[in-house]
Amino acid sequence: MFLSYFKPSVEYLPGGIESGFREVKEKKHEPRLLQCKGERYPRVFSVDMKADSINEGDVFILDMGDKIYFWPGDQCNVTEKMKALEVATNMRKGERHCAADILFPKEQDAVDQEFWKILGGKPAVITPYTPDDPDVPEEDHGYKLYKISNDTGKLLCTEVTERPLTRAHLDTTNVFILEL
C-alpha cells in the first residue's frame, strides 16, 4: 500500500549513508572552463583553464563549484549567450542544488579581477573574434549523406552526391545517415 502512493514507481539509486557496510565519499569538484561556440547550434566544450583560452567571439563559463562565472565576448552572438546561460543555470540548479552563485565579471570590477586572477591574470589583449564557420565552398564541407534502402529486395547503402543537399533528397520510406 505504501508503494502505491508513489506513481509511476519508486526508483532506487546508488548511494547511502556512511555505515559499517559502505563508506560514502563526498564528490570532489574539479574547476573547469567551458566555451560556448556556434552560430546556429551552439555547443559547449571544455577548454584549458587559462586566460589565453578566452576570446571575444564566444561565451565562457568558469565553474569553480560555489561560484559560476559567465563571461560573454564582445562579439559573441545571442544564441551562444542563451545556450551558455542555460548551461550555467542548469549547473547551478541541478549539480549545485542552488548553492552556487552565477557571477557576471563584465558587470563588476571586483568580480572581473577575481575571474582573471583564477585564469592566471588578464592578458593585455584578449584574443579577437574569429568566425565560427569559415567561408568554405559547399563541396569542401566534408559531410556525406547516405541513403539506406531495400527497394530492390536487398539492403543497399548509396551516397547522395548531388549538391547542394536539400530536403527533397529525403523521404519517409528510407533511412538516411548524415556523416559530418
What general outline do the C-alpha atoms trace?
Answer: flat
Percentage of residues in strands: 15-25%
Radius of gyration, CA atoms, in whole angstroms: 24 Å
Per CATH, the class of the largest domain reads Alpha Beta
Structural class: alpha+beta
- List the total number of helices: 2
Provide the residue-averaged pLDDT. Answer: 84
- Going by CATH, the architecture of the largest domain would be 3-Layer(aba) Sandwich
Number of domains: 2
**Largest sheet, described in full?**
5 strands, mixed
How far the N terminus sits from the C terminus, by CA atoms, comes to 53 Å
| Number of E-state strands | 8
Portion of residues in helices?
10-25%
CATH superfamily of the largest domain: Severin
- H/E element string? EEEEHEHEEE
Low-confidence stretches: none
The strands making up the biggest β-sheet line up spatially as 2-1-3-4-5
Could you explain how this protein is built, in words?
Helix content is 16%, strand content 23%. With 180 residues, it is α+β, with helices and mostly antiparallel strands. The protein has two domains: 32-118, Severin (3-Layer(aba) Sandwich); 138-179, no CATH class. The strands form two sheets. It has a five-stranded mixed sheet, covered by helices on one side. Strands 7-6-8 form a three-stranded antiparallel sheet, with no helix packed on it. The chain is flat and about 65 Å long. The N and C termini lie far apart (53 Å).
Key features?
180 residues, alpha+beta, Severin, 2 domains, five-stranded mixed β-sheet, three-stranded antiparallel β-sheet, 8 strands, 16% helix
